[in-house]
Amino acid sequence: MASEADKKNVDGARDAWARAHVVPLWETGVHRAEREAAPGRIWRWRDLRPLIEQACAITDTRQAERRVLALSDPASTAGRRTVTNLNANFQILMPGETARPHRHSPNALRFVVEGGGGVTVVDGKRCPMEHGDLVITPAWSWHEHRHEGEGPLIWLDALDVPLHQYLGAAFFEPGPANDLPAMQPDEAFAQAGMAPQRETPARDYSPLFRFARADWARALAAAPADADEARRMRFFNPRNGGPILSLMECAMLRLAPHRPTATHRTTANAVFIVVEGAGRTRVGDHTFVWERNDVVTMPGGNWISHEARDADATLFCISDQPALERLGLFRMERGAASEADGVR
């Protein structure tokens, strides 16, 4: 048992450390080999859709830089974010509205979940936005949005803003657009396995900014099924085979009904939106039941598995895997097929 004198010595040491702004590292537990993974979270479209209508009724694009509802994890202690290193939002344009040009250091993508007739202009290149299309706006590219169709145009935004903010490297510049880079036409990359021999300057993102639903659906249907009967397809940069954005990976996953995928866990953090179908996803100790347009987060360190309910289901997945790979921090473990339970 510690004596009274020993206790005073310890208390005095702690007071001295506090005044000097130092911390006894041996008491913080940072040397533990593995920390508990953060839990996943689900945002249900049936709850969000009425809130989107409400946002349209009280805000327009003349008042706001963007009409956006951000998906914010209330458990986050590192500022507003959806999951570590990634933010996801729903952005809305009404007919005739525009979102003025700007650019920023974080990468961003847009996946259209409702409506059509939109256009995103990326570094001067016009990218149509129809239901199910994916449009990317790489870091520091000028981009603006226009709605030239009818009815609400709604898309999922995903950005690596939290990573840039943590690193102190988040920058923003309002328009008008200027100093636009020279661009290759999309037709130059239209044939699989072929690309212009020389292209300057070299960039670490895809020269294709729009991936139409019809194109990715055809590629996903042609992808061979894995042992768990799921079909997996990633979007890649035709210049070098890397991810379409320097710090973000995008992929499609098609699930066979009543066939759980093999479990896996990685150090990467991910978020997905349900494109079609219904099912459930196991994230660590919790299982989330989902349907079309629901959004689910999968923080790194959790064992993950998916299962479609009564028919094929398709998920659009975004992760920060490329960022972790660049830092030498990406790891993956694979498990066996899993039966999801603990439904939430």
Structural notes for this entry:
By secondary structure, the chain is an alpha+beta fold. It has one domain: Sandwich (Jelly Rolls), CATH 2.60.120.10. Helices cover 15% and strands 33% of the residues. It is built from 5 helices and 22 strands. The longest helix is centred in the first third of the chain and has 17 residues.
Chain-wise SSE layout:
Blueprint: H1 4-20, E1 42-43, H2 45-58, E2 68-71, E3 87-93, E4 98-104, E5 108-114, E6 118-122, E7 125-129, E8 134-137, E9 143-147, E10 153-159, H3 161-166, E11 172-174, E12 210-211, H4 213-222, E13 231-234, E14 249-255, E15 262-266, E16 270-276, E17 279-283, E18 286-290, E19 295-298, E20 304-308, E21 313-319, H5 321-326, E22 332-337
Antiparallel strand pairs: 1-19, 2-3, 3-10, 4-9, 4-11, 5-8, 5-10, 6-7, 6-9, 8-12, 13-14, 14-21, 15-22, 16-19, 16-21, 17-18, 17-20
Brief synopsis:
This protein is of the alpha+beta class.
CATH class: Mainly Beta
CATH third-tier fold name: Jelly Rolls
The domain count comes to 1
Average pLDDT taken over every residue: 92
- The helix fraction, in percent, is 10-25%
How many β strands by DSSP?
A: 22
Q: Which key features would you list for this structure?
A:
344 residues, alpha+beta, Jelly Rolls, 6-stranded antiparallel beta sheet, 5 helices, 15% helix, disordered C terminus
